[in-house]
Amino acid sequence: MLLAIDVGNTNIVLGLYDGATLTKSWRIKTDAYATADEYAIQLRALTANSPTITGIALCSTVPSVLREMREMIKREFADIKSVIVEPGIKTGVSIATDNPKEVGTDRIVNSLAVFQRHGGPSIVVDFGTSTNLDVVNEAGDFIGGALAPGIEISIDALATRAAALRKIELVKPRAAIGRNTVEALQSGAFYGFAGQVDRLVNQIIAEVGPVKAVVATGGLASTVVEACTTITHVEPDLTLEGLRLVFERN
User: Most Cβ neighbours (<10 Å): which of 32, 94, 102, 173?
Assistant: First the structure.
């Protein structure tokens, strides 16, 4: 069994693969101060009733967690093959940007997965701590994209900075015209973020031409895609799939 681990700024997503089939997945809170031992305890608890892990694929956008995860793998899984997505690892994705070292490993992994599934040009819309739009050309190269504040941090910031407003549950409101403060906030978030995504996708398409797919992924993908007109596929486990593909290549 392959254990794929995607470390994001807010959550860590883990998935167990039997060959090319994702059999189980979990989502836990990212703790930048947790130690290798603490992560090992969590991992052992989650996989206690699962088949033996024979490989690990990992990507991380949080340096402190990457350090502890690396130490955990060294201690707990030294006898199995592990692949950490970093410079020197074969991904099959050429990075055609001004500074390739700036590109997060999750964006590279997403680019690999979307190209393998749909071809190119394609766009990944990753709804996470930030909303990332990743663009892959017809050759499978990552050519850049757009980054915007994520849904949850935007709602949190509004509630923090505006004394009369509050944090809300992000659900589809009864109508775009909110009849109370909560519904007004929900309308602004639900339709506002959907509109932001559609505008960015349309602008990207205007620059690269028609695309094969616009794929939504990430923990918040299901919240606003209903209102998006440009999303063609919703694939919550796209990053895990990319990690599986990177593991196979290495």
Answer: 173
Q: Distances from the Cα of 40 to the Cαs of 15, 84, 136, in angstroms?
A: 15, 16, 35
pLDDT tens track for 231-249: 999 999 999 999 999 999 9
Q: What is the pLDDT of residue 107?
A: 95
Q: Over the chain, what is the mean pLDDT?
A: 93
Write the CB contacts of 73 (distance below 8 Å, at least 6 apart in sequence): 56, 58, 82, 84
Query: In CATH terms, are 2-84 and 100-237 the same topology?
Result: yes
Q: Which helix (H) or strand (E) holds 242?
A: helix 238-249
Q: Respond yes or no: is residue 141 known to be catalytic.
A: no
10 vs 111, which has greater pLDDT?
A: 111
Phi, psi angles (nearest 5°) of residue 82: -135, 145
* Cα 69 to chain centroid, rounded: 18
Query: Any idea which fold 100-237 has?
Result: Nucleotidyltransferase; domain 5 (3.30.420)
Measured CA distances, 38 to 52, 60, 83, 158, 203 (Å) = 20, 17, 21, 33, 44
What mean pLDDT comes out for the span 101-124? 96
User: Under a CB-based contact definition with an 8 Å cutoff, are residues 231 and 103 in contact?
Assistant: no
Q: Residue type for 160, please? A: T
Tell which CATH architecture fits domain 2-84.
2-Layer Sandwich (3.30)
List the chain domain ranges: 2-84, 100-237
Per annotation, catalytic residue among 6, 106, 126, 134: 106
Cα–Cα distance measured from residue 236 to residue 228, given in angstroms and rounded to the nearest whole number: 16
